[in-house]
Write a structure and sequence with these properties.
Number of helices: 15
Largest sheet: 6 strands, mixed
Number of domains: 3
Strand order of the largest sheet: 6-5-4-7-8-9
Helix content: 40-55%
Oligomer: single chain
Shape: globular
Order of helices and strands: HHHHHHHHEEHEEHEEHHEHEHEH
CATH topology of the largest domain: Rossmann fold
């Protein structure tokens, strides 16, 4: 999440915006910034669509970065752009701009403001990622109740990225951005040259089959409740999602995530899953899933996501056999391990070592930043 309170000069905020894009994975260099600053002299910056179009045209060089750019732009420029001081010079020197990038485009007092924010003495008014980046990087198990509430807003944004992806197929749309030439010709065939009515279309939103299995054993307890909230948000946005939890046995909880609130869903899940915070038998649980649920819930294009730290007391031979069966049934197999975000972690426990050869992706799931990476991975898998 990005702090959306730009202040100060327009140039400072443009530099801050470029840094936010860079941290979000969009490559922006000083040449891009010079182009944008030159564009500002030829547009009405008070018109948000014009400034958006100029920034997108000059700062984005890859198609895959467009959605990330839109998200960062809408969040960073949360205030009206016309409230900023428009003191952008007509010509911007490359060396000066590089100096600003190295300094972060901030006032001399910004270091003191950041220190105050880190100590909880006050929030900085400077645009950037600092306070929210701390939330993104904070371990889920160490979050306070207030931080969890803030994290839910970030989760909603992440899930929106996962849920709504543009298909190559088009559908009719009266206000769509593209002209549908085929429908236009059909509608206007009888009019001749006397009149033309343009038919529009847009890309269809695709929804994808996703299967999630979440470990709720004792070793995962500090993470599983938060991750269930994330899965709940995904389920609300993507109807074609099936969810199961396991410890010593497999329990499918998809129907329990249809409640009106996440708190109500968590209570129902806790009542239904009697082995919550118990031991772990991953091989036996995956066997139960393969034997009982897989035929009805999996398709050849299903993405399977297992959330577990890999600690297992069961038979490694059985786990190896069932992981192989599961891998043959799905399109991609992703394993999320909260411990992977710990410094120096190595997958040495038997359960994790047994699962690794069958995984397409092995990813962390210990903070919001890792969930953002998961969203990017899912979009690339579903492309």
């Amino acid at each position: 999440m990005i702090k959306s309170t730009p202040s100060g000069s327009m140039l400072d905020n443009v530099v801050g915006f470029s840094r936010a894009l860079h941290r979000a994975g969009v490559e922006v260099n000083s040449g891009n910034l010079i182009d944008l600053c030159n564009c500002i002299g030829h547009i009405d910056v008070q018109k948000r669509p014009d400034f958006y179009a100029a920034a997108r045209a000059t700062l984005v060089s890859r198609f895959d970065d467009l959605e990330t750019f839109d998200y960062v732009f809408n969040t960073f420029w949360g205030v009206q752009i016309e409230t900023l001081e428009m003191d952008v010079p007509q010509e911007v020197d490359d060396a000066d701009l590089m100096d600003m990038l190295e300094e972060g485009g901030e006032d001399p007092d910004s270091a003191e403001q950041e220190e105050d924010a880190a100590e909880g003495e006050g929030d900085s008014d400077e645009p950037g990622w600092s306070p929210d980046e701390m939330l993104l990087k904070k371990d889920l198990a160490a979050m306070s109740d207030k931080e969890i509430e803030q994290a839910r807003k970030v989760i909603a944004e992440i899930v929106n990225i996962i849920a709504n992806r543009r298909s190559r197929r088009r559908i009719p749309e009266n206000q769509g951005p593209e002209i549908d030439f085929r429908r236009t010709w059909r509608k206007n065939a009888a009019m001749g040259p006397d009149g033309v009515e343009l038919a529009k279309r847009r890309k269809r939103i695709k929804k994808t089959k996703l299967m999630v299995l979440c470990d709720v054993s004792g070793s995962m307890d500090c993470y599983s409740r938060f991750l269930i909230q994330f899965i709940y948000a995904v389920k609300r946005e993507i109807p074609d999602v099936e969810v199961g939890v396991f410890s010593t046995r497999m329990t499918v909880i998809s129907r329990l995530l249809k409640s009106k609130s996440v708190e109500e869903s968590l209570r129902e899940v806790a009542d239904e899953v009697h082995d919550w915070a118990g031991g772990t038998d991953i091989g036996s649980c995956i066997r139960d899933f393969n034997d009982v649920f897989a035929r009805d819930m999996l398709r050849s294009r299903t993405v399977m996501m297992i959330v577990s730290d890999g600690w297992d007391r069961g038979d490694t031979g059985l786990m190896r056999q069932e992981m192989e069966r599961l891998r043959r049934r799905v399109h991609k197999l992703i394993w999320l391990n909260p411990l992977l975000g710990s410094p120096g972690y190595q997958p040495l426990c038997l359960g994790m070592k047994t699962a690794l050869p069958y995984l397409d992706y092995f990813m962390a799931a210990h903070n919001l930043e890792s969930l953002i990476e998961l969203a990017k991975t899912l979009r690339s898998v579903w492309r």
